[in-house]
């Protein structure tokens, strides 16, 4: 069992930055692929970024590529999402997710993740 707790959300002006953190419980964090998803009001949950358990591979949604960076610190059981050049359309609840890493590919689909956090709100004002 893995428990995930997100933090770092808040209100920021367009063009600003935030860094989200996701702290995971359990001793097997380093074996899980980790992902960030987001869900805006009235919309489906969408993929943002993900990183393999080893930290060697990352993938990003086209909408955030070049602005967001995912990273992990396995010693701290934490995954991060650095968000720069934020836009109003980035406003959403951001969720952290953990997947067992059974595939060699970096997972992008919600069904590839086994554990989810409760989310942290990010609001970008124009």
Q: Round the mean pLDDT to the nearest integer and report it.
A: 95
The number of helical runs is 0
- Kindly provide the radius of gyration, computed on alpha-carbon positions and rounded to a whole number of angstroms: 13 Å
**What is the percent of helical residues?**
under 10%
Q: How far apart, in Å, are the first and last alpha carbons?
A: 40 Å
Instruction: Please give the largest β-sheet.
Output: 7 strands, mixed
Describe this structure in words.
The protein is mostly beta strands and 126 residues long. It contains no helices and 11 strands. The strands form 2 sheets. Strands 2, 4, 5, 6, 9, 10 and 11 form a 7-stranded mixed β-sheet that branches. A 4-stranded antiparallel β-sheet has the order 1-3-8-7, with no helix packed on it. A hairpin with a 4-residue loop joins strand 7 and strand 8. It is globular, with a radius of gyration of 13 Å. The chain starts with a strand and ends with a strand. The model has no long low-confidence stretch (mean pLDDT 95).
């Amino acid at each position: 069992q893995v428990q995930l707790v997100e933090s770092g959300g808040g209100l920021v002006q367009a063009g600003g930055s935030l860094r989200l953190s996701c702290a995971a419980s359990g001793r097997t964090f380093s074996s899980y692929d980790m992902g960030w998803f987001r869900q805006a009001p009235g919309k489906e949950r969408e993929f943002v970024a993900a990183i393999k358990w080893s930290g060697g591979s990352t993938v990003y949604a086209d909408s955030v590529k070049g602005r967001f960076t995912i990273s992990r610190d396995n010693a701290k059981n934490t995954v991060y999402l650095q968000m720069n050049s934020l836009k109003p359309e980035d406003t959403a609840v951001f969720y952290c997710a953990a997947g067992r890493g059974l595939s060699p590919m970096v997972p992008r689909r919600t069904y590839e993740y086994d554990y989810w956090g409760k989310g942290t709100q990010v609001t970008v004002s124009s």
